[in-house]
Amino acid sequence: MGEAPDNIVLIENERDVDELEVEDPSKVAYISQTTLSVDETRAVINRLRERFPEIIGPRTDDICYATTNRQLAVKQMAGECDLVLVIGSRNSSNSNRLVEVARFHGADSYLIDNETQVEEEWLEGKRVVGITSGASAPENLVQRLVEFFKKRGVTDISEFHVVQEDVRFMLPKHIRKALAGQAG
């Protein structure tokens, strides 16, 4: 929005789409923030396509795979948990979304930086606690939270698998060529 403020409109929900007025409906395109809720984004994009059949969007889903996978896992996990603790920064959009997704799917949920922020009252009456983290939270913070529960006597700990992340990122072509030249 900072690059072309006169040509970009922020759409946050389907109502915004309904109220959107554009000069030329045949010249509309969209992009989305990579950390938005997958379900919310899908509904907004569907509404945009209804209103503007010629709309142009990204060639592929531009919500990052890690965010998509974590939201899917939390959606499924929340139904089996009394509480979901999300490790992540307060200013992390994807971490905040994970809390929202867990709550929407029936679990109490809180965002914490680390195990020292767990409140005793959150745990009262809870039998099953789910642990997840934002896409950029270090794995050692998750392990420290698991250790926090082990020290409290929890012995039934299991990983919840939904999606196997096997995405590989290619180096840019010019770097691959340079590396190939060094190997020879």
Descriptive terms for the model:
184 residues, mainly alpha, Cobalt-precorrin-4 Transmethylase, domain 1, 2 domains, 3-stranded parallel sheet, 40% helix, extended
Structure description:
- The structure is a single chain.
- It is extended, with a radius of gyration of 21 Å.
- 19% of the residues are buried.
- The protein contains 7 helices and 3 strands.
- With 184 residues, the protein is mainly alpha-helical.
- The chain has a 3-stranded parallel beta sheet.
- The model has no long low-confidence stretch (mean pLDDT 83).
- The chain starts with 13 loop residues before the first helix and ends with a helix.
- The chain folds into 2 domains: 63 residues, 3-Layer(aba) Sandwich (Cobalt-precorrin-4 Transmethylase, domain 1), CATH 3.40.1010.20; 87 residues, 4-hydroxy-3-methylbut-2-enyl diphosphate reductase, catalytic domain (Cobalt-precorrin-4 Transmethylase, domain 1, 3-Layer(aba) Sandwich), CATH 3.40.1010.
- The longest helix is centred in the first third of the chain and has 14 residues.
Give the CA-based shape. extended
What's the story with the biggest beta sheet? 3 strands, parallel
Q: Catalogue the unreliable spans.
A: none
Order of helices and strands: HHHEHEHEHH
Structural class: mainly alpha
Quaternary status of these chains?
single chain
CATH topology label of the largest domain: Cobalt-precorrin-4 Transmethylase, domain 1
Q: What is the total domain count? A: 2
User: How far apart are the first and last residues' alpha carbons, in Å?
Assistant: 46 Å
Using the 3D structure, state the CATH architecture of the largest domain. Answer: 3-Layer(aba) Sandwich
Radius of gyration: 21 Å
Overall strand count: 3
Mean pLDDT: 83
- Helical percentage: 40-55%
CATH H level, superfamily name of the largest domain: 4-hydroxy-3-methylbut-2-enyl diphosphate reductase, catalytic domain
